[in-house]
Amino acid sequence: MTNLPAVERALRTAAPHDLLRRLREALVEHFGALAVELLMADYGLTVLQPVTSLPHTAEPLPVQSSAEGRAFGSQEPYGQYAAQDDAVDLHLPVTVRGDRLGILTVRLAEADCTPDTVEELREVAELLGHEIVVAERDTDLYLQARRASRLTLAAEMQWQLLPARSCSHPEYAIGAQLEPAYDIHGDNFDWSSTAENLTLTVTNGMGEGIQASLLTNLAVNALRNARRAGIGIADQAALADQAIYGRYRGAEYVSTLLISLDVATGNGQVVDAGSPQLWRYRDRTVERVEFEAQFPLGMFEETPYVAQDFQARPGDRLVFVSDGVYAAASAAGEAYSERALARAVHATSLLPAAAVPSGILRELAAYRDADAEDDALVMCMDWFGRQEPH
What we know:
Layout: H1 4-12, H2 19-31, E1 35-41, E2 47-50, E3 61-62, H3 67-74, E4 78-81, E5 87-96, E6 99-109, H4 115-135, H5 141-145, H6 153-161, E7 166-168, E8 172-179, E9 187-193, E10 197-205, H7 209-228, H8 233-248, E11 254-262, E12 267-273, E13 277-282, E14 285-289, E15 308-311, E16 317-321, H9 323-326, H10 340-347, H11 356-367, E17 376-383
Antiparallel strand pairs: 1-2, 1-6, 2-3, 4-5, 5-6, 7-8, 8-17, 9-10, 10-11, 11-12, 12-15, 13-14, 13-16, 16-17
């Protein structure tokens, strides 16, 4: 008989801040676990931070060169022989609908680490992820555990705006990342889906620090308010434009790219209102997809916006980048978009969508002549299309 119901009950009845202790007790009782540890991915997606007593966490582990990081990157359970107890450390992805939160490590006696047990514990890790997402409404514990250093106030505001950093559905998979993760101020991304439609937005508020974050916050919430009223993306842009102009009178504005896609067909519409760019990887070829440029949101009073047609095909990879990516210059003064961006998209072509933004941003960091002077945003979407039932 499966032990899952008992573990699930323990998680669902635990206080938000007490999930790990209750889970540890349940896994010891029902699975014979010798040790249980939860690690949260930090905001930069470079380390996994053990959740311990705050305000401190234990020593973080690198994502790129640890067994736990291997499980995080592959999103598959990974077993590692422990140095003692004739045991195996089983590293399990804690992921919610494609959003990669961290790793649950369960130490088991080697004889207990059967395929059935691994599969059950994989489900436990998924349940834990869902409970963490709910618990974050009532406790700061897991958000604090993600911090390798202190966030600036502007960055705090930006991260709180985000829907997630990745998601997956049968028709598409999305991943996105912002840098510098702990000091971001003007760039942001958003998405929302229904059974019929997927809407994506990439925004870049002008300025720096708190002012840029406040501007972007107004833009994102104005776009969401219009979207939730059930209107098309051209009118979403127009209403957000009015809200921003009404507050700043044209002195500050927000560059925005909006895309709405029909989930069943891949038919879509685009409003290009400023600087974010779209690049497409199709049939091993990388090219920029250009649209008719329209004014950024809030630049002028009552700007009319027009949506252009767009088509996503199964197998397409769409990469959205802010000007902090494509305009970054090498030591020789060559913009990243001239050649290096296409090379980075090729170099990350075998990675899943959730891992592509970090991969491109690592390539960018090596390419840049100096430390970033601007925010850098990369969002990747793999379009699979809807499969017809057999």
